[in-house]
Amino acid sequence: MSDTENGSAPVGRRERKKAATRQAIADAALRLFLERGYDDVGIREIAEAADVSTTTLFKHFPVKEALVFDEEADREAHLLAAVRERPKGQSIPAALREHALHSRMATAGGDARFTAYLDLVNSTPALRDYSQGMWLRHTAALAQAIAEESSRPADDPACTALAHFVLEAPRAARGHDDLRQAITVAFDLLENGWRALAPGE
After folding, report:
1. Which is nearest to 59 in space by CA: 17, 110, 116?
2. Rounded to an integer, what distance in angstroms lies between the CA atom of residue 191 and that of residue 142?
3. Half-sphere exposure (CA, 13 Å, Cβ side) for 85?
4. Which of 154, 162, 185, 190 is most buried when burial is the number of CB atoms within 10 A of its CB?
5. What is the spatial distance between Cα 152 and Cα 183, in angstroms, rounded to a whole number?
6. Cβ contacts of residue 77 below 8 Å, gap of 6+?
7. What's the rounded mean pLDDT across residues 104-125?
8. Residue 6 three-state SS
9. What percent of the chain is predicted at pLDDT more than 90?
10. Is the dihedral of CA 146, 99, 77, 121 positive or negative?
11. Cα(41)–Cα(35) distance, integer angstroms
């Protein structure tokens, strides 16, 4: 008997439905947050706007802050790809600097909705803290990729330190008038320190 005949949807269809529900919740949350501010929107309102129950909402997003960050797995994949797929001859810190500049900054002529999203995160303490905590959870995976690409031991503390500092650099640059310049200076420091450890990279 097929999945359809026995009353259950095929796995692919179930997964697509779950993904669609998750996206609808995230979209509704972001729309309301941008319209009224993060602190002035409740979970029940978001669930109603997405046409789901609060129980369903919490199955997809365990805490309110997570509603704003629904692409964590993709973020880590892009981060690791910056290291593993960098152009021949480009150093690891340089590759990660380019990734940071690309992913953490909205250009002057960029997407207005993305700019509004960044403004929401940067102006909301709870979201700033959650974002940084989420970002730092990628430290172990990034350290492993750095170790593999630089032929260093998997538990090399230098790789862990570089990964941690790379992920902290955008926050260290926050508040400066020229964010691009501040991020670049931070990565220049990492680049010069890394050269002493991996001069042949």
Report:
1. 17
2. 16
3. 7
4. 162
5. 26
6. none
7. 72
8. coil
9. 51
10. positive
11. 9
Token couple for 127: 């979201």
List the one residue out of 150, 135, 137, 136 whose CA is nearest residue 92: 150
Q: What's the pLDDT tens digit per position in 19-78?
A: 899 999 999 999 999 999 999 999 999 999 999 999 999 999 999 999 998 776 688 899
Higher-pLDDT residue of 112 and 162 is 162
Distance (Å, whole) CA 33 – CA 53: 19
Question: Encoding tokens for residue 196?
Answer: 């002493």
> Six-digit token pair at 53?
């129950």
Instruction: For residue 115, give both structure tokens.
Output: 């700019």
Phi, psi (rounded to 5 degrees) for 52 = -135, 170
Instruction: Kindly report the pTM of this predicted structure.
Output: 0.64
Q: Which two tokens stand for residue 144?
A: 């492993």
User: Are 131 and 201 in contact, with CB atoms under 8 Å apart?
Assistant: no
Q: Which two tokens stand for residue 172?
A: 């260290």
